[in-house]
Amino acid sequence: MANKEKSLQKREPETVSTVERTRSQKVFVPLVDIRETDNAIVLTADMPGVDEKSVDITLEKNVLTIDGRVDMVTPDGHQLSYMEYETGDFQRAFTLSDEINREGIEAQVKDGVLQVTLPKAEPAKARRIDIKVG
Asked: How many domains does the chain have?
């Protein structure tokens, strides 16, 4: 039997290059896990450095857009001499289907992890259409 090996590859963060920016920081595409439950679809995005005041979620024309803003902070009295961890803003967009209840969308962020809950819409109920004599 052949020995099957799975190799894990480190995924480098993607950057967004199609958006005109007014800030000089990089824009990263956050990695997102998508889970489905009986009642909702849950998005979990890894956005280090983002808190509830620096994240913006908009829904326009079936497109849910997540924007996170991160400012690099250097403690007083310190000067950066070497950096391995890059900071920047985050942006990601998702197209939603009609199966999502747009009024019930909720989001929360804790420790740089954003969770967006997209509740499923009630399925359209089949009904009989009465015909009237005119």
From this structure: 1
**Two tokens, residue 97:** 């289907």
Asked whether residue 79 is domain-assigned, the answer is no
Strands 26-29 and 14-15: antiparallel
- Return the C-alpha torsion angle 72, 76, 81, 87, nearest 10: -10
pTM (predicted TM-score): 0.71
pLDDT by residue, tens only, the chain of 134 residues:
455 555 555 555 555 555 555 667 788 999 999 999 989 999 999 999 899 999 999 999 999 999 999 887 778 888 888 878 778 899 999 999 988 999 999 999 999 999 999 999 887 556 787 888 87
